[in-house]
Design goal:
By secondary structure, this protein is mainly α. Helix content is 45%, strand content 8%. The longest helix has 28 residues, at 6-33.
Length: 119
């Protein structure tokens, strides 16, 4: 017997629409407030390539959208992806340190003695 998923589908669709509407609102505000320049690599944008300029939330909270834009910066899609990957990498490194073993071998420990014996 198939479950009726129409109610769930409606809820998901409405949530997506609300998120898109909210995102469109702060993106439009940010594009009015700030010059169309990536805050990291300084690439400039115009109407032809403006879709590659994205709004980055400095505190990672997409619901924190003050009207003065203090939580936003415009980043090109590449720098924006890099910014988020740094956070993911840092989180991964923190988790992986639990199982990480410390290296004890030092290849240059006897270097001074080795150089003394060299002809």
């Amino acid at each position: 017997m198939a479950k009726d998923t129409s109610k769930l589908d409606k809820v998901v669709l409405e949530a997506r629409r609300n998120a898109e509407k909210r995102a469109q609102g702060y993106r439009e505000q940010a594009l009015k407030l700030f010059p169309w320049v990536c805050g990291r690599c300084a690439r400039t944008f115009d109407h032809k390539n403006l879709q590659l300029l994205e709004v980055h939330h400095k505190n990672s909270n997409h619901d924190d959208n003050p009207p003065d834009g203090s939580n936003w910066e415009l980043l090109c899609t590449y720098c924006h992806e890099h910014e988020h990957s740094k956070l993911k990498d840092a989180t991964g490194r923190i988790d992986s340190k639990k199982n990480e073993t410390i290296a004890t071998f030092s290849p240059f420990a006897n270097l001074k003695d080795m150089l003394k014996n060299k002809p």
